[in-house]
Amino acid sequence: MSRPLYRGVSGIRIPDNTLDSWDSQSKDKTEKDGLDKKGSSDPSPLPLKSPFRLLFADNSKNGITENGFSPDPFILGTPRSRHKLILLFMKFSIVFIVILALAGSFWWTVSISTTSRGHIFHGYRRLQEKLVSDLLDIGEISDAPSKLKELDFCSQEFENYVPCFNVSDNLAQGYSDGNEFDRQCGRELRQNCLLLSPTNYKIPLRWPTGRDVIWVSNVKITAQEVLSSGSLTKRMMMLDEEQISFRSASLMFDGVEDYSHQIAEMIGLRNESNFIQTGVRTILDIGCGYGSLGAHLFHSQLLTMCIANYEPSGSQVQLTLERGLPAMVASFTTKQLPYPSLSFDMLHCARCGIDWDQKDGILLIEADRLLKPGGYFVWSSPITYARNQDSQTRWKFIHDFAENLCWDMLSQQDETVVWKKTSKRKCYSSRKNGSPPPLCSRGYDVESPYYRELQNCIGGTHSSRWVSIEERDNWPSRDHPNKNELAIYGLQPDEFAEDSESWRTAVQNYWSLLSPLIFSDHPKRPGDEDPPPPFNMLRNVLDMNAHFGGFNSALLQSGKSVWVMNVVPMSGFNYLPLIQDRGYVGVLHDWCEAFPTYPRSYDLVHAAGFLSLETGQQRKCTLFDIFIEIDRLLRPEGWIIIRDSVPLIEMARALTTRLKWDARVIEIDSDSDQRLLICQKPFFKRQAN
């Protein structure tokens, strides 16, 4: 949305009746002045004489000569008289031309219809608003150098810094019982500095090698933390001097393969490869360890989003992202997660550290909100299998509460329990009278929660997206919604098809531009087993303005082995429900706040139309702040693609060059008013002491 005009008068339309009134007053005043000069003589002047006397008054007093006769300029005879006549004729001609011009302008104005004048006016107003917006942005650029003069590299303590997650400050504010790990944005000071990579940082190994082997120096974890970890996925790590290896199917003990096979059998399937046939595509893995479940299920075309609390060291999220798997910092504490209702086909929690029986079951209500109708909740915990009184009491509360949520317990084996959420809304009305929790009101049950306080009511039941996963198309057909499904999001098939086609073309252009840039400088990394280019250099992708998710879809259709974090800005229209229903992962986010992830998370950041969206808002931050955040998110030698209008691209280039990024502007085509800005973040590494 363009900014409104607050200064200047350009483009303001004066009403026609105001002009007529002004003309009438001017004419009356002129005639009055002329009559005053003329006096009472010559009561019946010639018709052509009066206008000239009004326009060219004689210098004689009261217009009377000394002999008492009024001078007549039309009397011929002397040369002086002829000269005066010629001058009057020329003046008359000029006046006549002016009158004709005014009359033509008047009739041209009258001939314009009200609708046409409205189009001209509003079009001109849009130009004015765009101009003011550009000027404000240019002003922002002019302020940037003063900031950039102070811009330096951050100190070592910020190598793994995640803004909004400061445990020490939260403890000082009185947060406890796990709430100290909650997200608290707004109080932290902005770090206007560029992050340096750790001393021994190395470019991650290419996919798929990087899924199973990562560099120790790239993550903040110690050998003691690896050896002392006790969860299923954490045990599946082997540590040497430089690398951590993940063994998801080790013969030494039961691995993730056996565990996922067990879950499939509990649901009634032959193995995990059949999850797709039951409607499962997206999984939210809560407290995911180091992403081994998602790494294994990736082979079955299942997309697993790992979430875990912020951890000062030994981070589950950081290691999962380093492996090239979807992850973000998030926690079940006091706020709703930034996903719409009915987002995931399965929720998984294996010793995830969440006490589901605490806080009167409100955390289970949030899990229910995120789960699609007919979806599965998988929980592995010693509580379900323990024999002591305390554990049995806790287990009974969770069991009964899940029943009140209309979850059907399918099976229990050892420590693992699988529930299935109802796909029938009438289940809630058939509960016993007064059974908690109640249903949320229609006004509360919206699709745009952004770290909203947890609520003690069941959400999603009023949504038009309440469709069982069995009734939805299986992946990959889910990626192409039909006419009725698109109508839920207010879209027409032609609009959706046009968007999809444009992104297929854009991805082809992107890769034709990126491939020579990437592989001319990096022919091969040591220790990699590379598939043919351009699959191997990019794995983790962040789309800052995902819209319908078309960029993500086009990447997969073109065979790129990537995953995309689809971000829907809070300043734009919320199409995240559509993105989730298509079978992708994404999140709502305010880009004036830090993105919930660790530094050096993404290989590629994509922003199409993002600058236009953000510059049209009343922002609480500058684009300079956002670009510093992008620098934090990018891995060394990572890439940025920005697509926008020419003025905004030039503005972005002015910022990126000062951020030490290598940038080049590329014309899309000669008829387009948009440009591409392709940048690469340099590899700045902290020197060893």
TrEMBL record:
Classification via Pfam families: Methyltransf_29 (PF03141)
* UniProt main location, coarse: membrane
Compositionally biased tracts (Basic and acidic residues): 25-40
GO MF terms on file?
methyltransferase activity
Q: Could you confirm whether the keyword Magnesium appears in this record?
A: no
**How does this protein lie in the membrane?**
Single-pass membrane protein; Single-pass type II membrane protein
Answer whether the UniProt record assigns the keyword Chloroplast to this protein: no
- The EC class name is transferase
Recorded protein name is: Methyltransferase
Which species is this record about? Cicer arietinum
